[in-house]
Design goal:
This protein is mainly alpha-helical. Helix content is 74%, strand content 0%. It has one domain. It starts with a helix and ends with a helix.
Amino acid sequence: MLNLILIGALIGIGGTVAMDIWAVVLWKFFGQSAPNWAPVGRWTWHLRNGTVFHDSIGNASRYANEQALGWLFHYFVGIVYGIVLAVVMGEAWLEAPTFLPAFVWGIVTVAAGWFLLQPGLGIGWAASKTPNPTKVRAMNLLGHTVFALGMWVTALVLR
């Protein structure tokens, strides 16, 4: 079991790194906004007081290290997702990883963003309060597909 957890953590890190590289590519070459994990760090900081949902995270009190906390939380979540994938799929999948389970899991994990994080930040269920929710949702699905690719490739490298 410890081996599954360790490998799963590495798979989650690999997927998260892939997602971050994708975000930088979108920023540098396609004019998307640069990755900013400070709002997530602020949201994470306020969880300690039991505050999950904000009307606008921008109006919540600041935390001096919110950017760093946001990055840490981002990687923590990716690691947890990688561990869950490894534990659920087991040793057989780790010996011969296929893309479909990683892809399905990557898409399923979008739900946490749509139904917990985004409303928590004050941008609505599945980004419904943003100027272009359809674009945000499509980019979320694409980003989590890249995350899935990263997990799968990492699993292939580690087998």
